């Protein structure tokens, strides 16, 4: 590979920072879930880049990436179902209106 | 093996798509656009996966994230107050947010423009609208759709981002700088020169069925339970013989009537 490992890791780091911003700054739950997806993407990119450059003979990294995608799908489905339920009760999907869930 | 120039070009293009898509997702005011930008970001990351010769994961990325999750997300965007961003388009925005929200027409400006076209053109966002007139047709449609969906909802507090947005932006920039700095300043990792098996899907399948079988089956059970939970949470729950439940769980009400509905209403059995 001509492109060095660090280039891929830097792309993943930038994606991570953007996802971090989206999770904190966005107000609606859907946008927060989108931010979490970007974070998971960054993690997967990191794993695959390390696999390709440091251990290309061991395919375990791809298994981990597949598991990350799977967990992300489940988290998304449950999160969206929770949001639908909360929307029916509160007529709102803004995170601010669910603050009593903290307790 | 690809020639070096081609590799670098592919890396730059896919990295740009991934990062610009994520940035657009985080900063645009329209949630629908956010979903589309997110799709671009997923496509970019899938391209990077394929460039890293993880073909199976690239395809999985496209099928799972774009085919599955993005459809879910765009479906949920329908529940939002302001999916087209028409309410937010005129509010205070950072330059990058303004750039990614080009062509979104603020609602108030649109009304004024319709009534007094000459007067409204002097306004700032209206001028912006004129300037980017080519791209604004879609925004106008989105605005109209949002307007129809808004109906008689509560218009207070429409902001899509939290008040801590500047703080969050600085925090994110700090996180990004620290991570990138650590990566750049660190001595290089020990890189192995090997080339992975081109038939990697077979190897992954064998691993999945031998070494990582417990994890694989566990993920299957997790998906099953997750789908059970999601269906249980999201289905309309109306149990007439359980009065205590009605207080805790919302009962489905008939939907609100649509303004200027041209269709004749359906008649139900026994309820003419």
Structural overview:
The complex is a heterodimer of chains A (103) and B (272). With 103 residues, chain A is mainly alpha-helical. Chain A has one domain: Helix Hairpins. Chain A is built from three helices and no strands. The longest helix of chain A has 31 residues. Chain A is elongated and about 55 Å long. Chain B is mostly helical and 272 residues long. Chain B has two domains: 174 residues, Four Helix Bundle (Hemerythrin (Met), subunit A), CATH 1.20.120; 41 residues. Chain B contains twelve helices and no strands. In chain B, helix 1 runs antiparallel to helix 2 and helix 2 packs antiparallel against helix 3. Chains A and B meet through helix 1, helix 2 and helix 3 of A and helix 1, helix 2, helix 3, helix 9 and helix 10 of B.
Provide a compact summary of the structure.
Chain A has about 100 residues and is an all-alpha fold.
């Amino acid at each position: 590979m001509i492109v060095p490992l660090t280039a891929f890791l830097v792309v993943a780091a930038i994606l991570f920072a953007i996802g971090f911003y989206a999770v904190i700054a966005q107000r609606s739950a859907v946008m927060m879930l989108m931010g979490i997806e970007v974070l998971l993407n960054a993690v997967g990119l990191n794993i695959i880049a390390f696999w390709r450059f440091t251990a290309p003979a061991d395919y375990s990294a791809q298994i981990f990436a597949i598991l990350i995608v799977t967990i992300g799908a489940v988290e998304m489905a449950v999160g969206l179902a929770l949001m639908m339920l909360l929307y029916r009760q509160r007529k709102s999907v803004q995170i601010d209106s669910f603050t009593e869930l903290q307790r | 093996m690809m020639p070096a120039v081609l590799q670098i070009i592919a890396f730059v293009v896919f990295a740009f798509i991934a990062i610009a898509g994520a940035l657009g997702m985080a900063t645009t005011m329209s949630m629908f656009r956010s979903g589309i930008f997110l799709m671009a970001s997923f496509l970019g990351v899938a391209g990077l996966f394929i460039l890293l010769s993880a073909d199976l994961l690239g395809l999985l990325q496209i099928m799972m994230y774009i085919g599955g999750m993005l459809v879910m997300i765009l479906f949920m965007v329908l529940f939002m107050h302001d999916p087209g961003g028409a309410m937010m388009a005129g509010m205070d925005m950072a330059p990058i947010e303004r750039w990614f929200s080009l062509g979104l027409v603020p609602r108030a400006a649109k009304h004024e423009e319709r009534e007094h076209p000459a007067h409204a053109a002097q306004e700032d966002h209206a001028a912006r609208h004129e300037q980017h007139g080519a791209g604004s047709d879609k925004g106008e449609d989105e605005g109209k759709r949002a307007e129809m969906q808004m109906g008689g909802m509560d218009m207070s507090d429409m902001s899509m981002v939290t008040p801590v947005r500047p703080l969050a932006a600085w925090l994110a920039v700090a996180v990004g700088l620290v991570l990138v700095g650590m990566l750049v300043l660190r001595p290089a990792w020990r890189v192995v020169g090997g080339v992975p098996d081109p038939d990697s899907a077979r190897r992954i399948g064998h691993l999945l069925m031998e070494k990582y079988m417990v994890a694989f089956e566990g993920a299957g059970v997790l998906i099953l339970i997750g789908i059970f939970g999601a269906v249980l949470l999201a289905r309309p729950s109306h149990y007439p013989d359980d009065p205590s439940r009605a207080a805790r769980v919302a009962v489905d009400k008939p939907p609100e009537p649509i303004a200027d509905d041209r269709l004749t209403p359906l008649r139900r059995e026994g309820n003419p």
